[in-house]
Design a protein that fits this description.
Rossmann fold; seven-stranded mixed sheet; two-stranded antiparallel sheet; globular; 9 strands; alpha/beta
């Protein structure tokens, strides 16, 4: 990894906060809909996701480059010591922005190599987020959400790297969403679905599926 790598002290009570728990819920819901028996999780973080999945009877293998978070396997996401198609599903949430964008495609290709099924991915997204919710008698609650790029995309603030280790984010100058999507396609995957967490719109989720057999 290049630059700042979060260690165990980074994942404190302030990190979890009141809104990040909603992001964890989206991870778990996305994985559960795929019904995997084995999951590869890149980035241990707080351990909340891997612990919850294991409690559901799923075999989880965690990978991280930071020894203090005690991963099952100490390795770089760009070069992992697993056979091809070793896992049913991979989870990689709020991790790949810690790599230079030039390495984003390599990480996706490696994740595709070791995974038989889908990849649940989340990335920070700075595009504008809009949401309209209507609650109607009998019909219940209906929500429509959409994103638009900023009219004048800003460069990533230097503090983002100094404090969080982010090399890039969706929607900042140089990495618009279309470039991110193009890299995903070039890495041999396609977007099955994508969405943002209403309570934490900064987190954009993707479910990626393999294209081809390579």
């Amino acid at each position: 990894m290049n630059g700042f790598v979060p260690n165990r002290s980074h994942y404190d009570a302030e990190y979890v906060g009141a809104t990040r728990v909603f992001s964890y819920a989206h991870v778990l819901a996305a994985v559960n809909t795929l019904h995997p028996r084995t999951v590869l999780e890149i980035g241990v973080g707080t351990g909340i996701v891997s612990d919850a999945l294991r409690r559901l009877g799923i075999a989880v293998t965690t990978v991280d480059v930071e020894p203090s978070v005690c991963p099952d396997v100490l390795a770089d996401v760009r070069r992992m010591p697993f056979e091809d198609q070793s896992f049913d599903v991979a989870v990689c949430c709020q991790v790949l922005e810690h790599l230079p964008f030039e390495d984003f495609g390599d990480a996706l290709r490696e994740l595709r190599r070791v995974t038989r099924g889908q990849l649940v991915l989340s990335l920070p997204d700075q595009d504008r987020y809009f949401e309209l919710t209507v609650r109607l008698p009998k019909l219940g609650c209906r929500t429509v959400a959409w994103s638009l790029p900023r009219l004048r995309p800003r460069p990533l603030p230097p503090a983002r790297f100094a404090e969080m280790g982010h090399h890039w984010e969706i929607g900042v100058r140089g990495t618009p969403r279309r470039r991110v999507l193009g890299t995903i396609i070039a890495a041999g995957s396609r977007v099955q679905r994508t969405w943002r967490v209403p309570e934490l719109p900064w987190h954009r989720f993707f479910v990626l599926e393999r294209v081809g057999n390579g």
